[in-house]
Amino acid sequence: MIELDGSMGEGGGQILRTSLALSLITQKAFRLSNVRANRSKPGLQPQHLAGVRAAATIGNAKVRGDAVGSREVIFEPGPVTPGKYRFAIGTAGSTSLLLHTIYLPLAWKTGQPSELILEGGTHVSTSPCFHYLDSTWRGYLELLGLRIKLKMLRPGFYPRGGGAIEASIQPAERIAAVNLTARGRIKSVGGFAAVAGLPDHIARRMARRVAVRLRERGLDVQLAVEEWEGGPGVVLAVALNAAPVPTMFTALGARGKPAEAVADELLAEVEPWLDADAPVDPHSADQLVLPLMLADGASEYRVSAVTRHLTTNIAVIRNFIDREVSVDGDEGAAGVVRIGGHKL
Question: Which residues participate in catalysis according to the annotation?
Fold first, then answer.
């Protein structure tokens, strides 16, 4: 059994999600102690518990420690079974992070497609928003030969939740390696400013502030202003259309947070990516490394900023897969991820 310490690196839920996915793929059991040790509420919270139970369901696994607040999880995997599943987090916990936990085991050499309905939050803080998944994340997966179709059935915001997404996952017999060291010219900038159950002037103010700043950089910016059902919630998304895939950044509103502050939060992520002239954004960097560890051949990609999420994810993966992987670059600065050429 692989022994893992949940206080390592960034010390959050990513350690658990990656361990669950790789346990199912490699059929190696693990014990994770000090679960989410570096968080204000350590231990399993409802969205992490949902991930454990979803992984156990699709992988016919034996689990100990699957309770809210648990600081140790023991997971013994069985065979992964593709099929139709519905998983409800029960709170505004992130449906995106739940999908990240189980999509690769369901895709990797199962031989059959899977259909998922995931209920919870679709646009919540410190996790990928649905629209990022459907543009940047899905775009990168297609480069690797992983085919997933996504649909948002209804939005869900913190604290109410109530959102739902649908995911159709096709099986993959191989994953392609990539070489992503140069970014193409940014042809245009799209995206949207959306409000749900709130006045539309909030969306217009967000869109105006972002458009002015990015046009000062010579970019062609066209942002839609949208009103959604449900809520209350505020979402701002900017997609920079350049090879290899459109890169989306998002920011969310909150009670007492001005529209301009939402725009500034988004620009604080967009502008460093523009200045770094690297194709891969920091969020995609740690999401790419996991499937690429299963790819045929060597991969290399340049990221606009090395994050602790990236280095922590690599440290976890090394416990399950014996393959050379390295990161050149200091935390917070641009860097290059290299993955060796031999297969699992």
Answer: 309
